[in-house]
Amino acid sequence: LFIEAAELAPGDPAYKADLANALSALAEPSAAEDSLIQAVLLDPGNPFYLADLGRILAAQNRDAEATAVLRQAVRHDPGNPHYQADLGRALYRQGCQVDAEDAFREALRLDPGNPSYLAMLGQALAAQENHAEAEAVFRRALESDPDSTAYLSGLGQALAAQENHAEAEAIFRRALEGD
Q1: d(CA 74, CA 86)
Q2: How far apart are CA 20 and CA 78, in angstroms?
Q3: Secondary structure tally for the chain: helices H, strands E
Q4: pLDDT 10s digits, 114-167
Q5: pLDDT of 3-50, one tens digit each?
Q6: Is the distance from CB of 103 to CB of 87 less than 8 angstroms?
Q7: pTM of the predicted model as reported, rounded to 2 decimal places
């Protein structure tokens, strides 16, 4: 259906983006990428298409390309916290922890208290060996989802890195109970 729609309206970037999302769901990342590139070429300033392309590239472990595209999405829509977080993820995967931290902080400025963004910030802080702040950030994330094994694991790792082994062990046990 999406292929037919895209063929009937080859100049409509929305159909190209819809086709890309359908192909992505069908585990066809290269075809999805091609369709999104067409959408971006038809509407180069559309941050939605840029962000989707960035996510497709990131899913293929093409993080440098994803970062470049996601930076464009952020430039066109700096107020979108999802684009900031996507950029942060791509930067994190490239080992650019300071830049990733900045992107996650901006996502949190736009969407304060978002537990996913807090957890990503915690990971970036821990990667920079800022374990005390990572601990505080994971504790904030746990306020919204106290049983999240991912948040508990991040907190446990931050505690262990600070040699607070007794509390880290208790947190890890709590995480294991939730699995």
Answers
A1: 10
A2: 24
A3: 11, 0
A4: 999 999 999 999 999 999 999 999 999 999 999 999 999 999 999 999 999 999
A5: 444 454 445 455 445 554 544 544 566 777 777 777 778 888 899 889
A6: yes
A7: 0.82
Residue 3 DSSP code: H
- Long-range Cβ contact pairs of 69-77 (< 8 A, separation 24 or more): 72/47, 73/47, 73/48, 74/47, 74/103, 76/45, 76/46, 76/47, 76/50, 77/47
**Chain-centre distance of CA 95, in angstroms?**
14
- Give the other-Cβ count within 10 Å of 153's Cβ: 17
Rounded distance, CA 117 to CA 106, Å?
A: 10
Q: How far is CA 23 from CA 19, 28, 35, 36, 149, in A?
A: 6, 5, 9, 10, 31
Please, are residues 151 and 142 in contact by the beta-carbon 8 Å criterion?
yes
Give the position of tokens 């595209």.
69
Residue with tokens 């931050």: 158
Q: Tokens 């930076």 appear where?
A: 71
Cβ-contact 161, 131 below 8 angstroms: yes
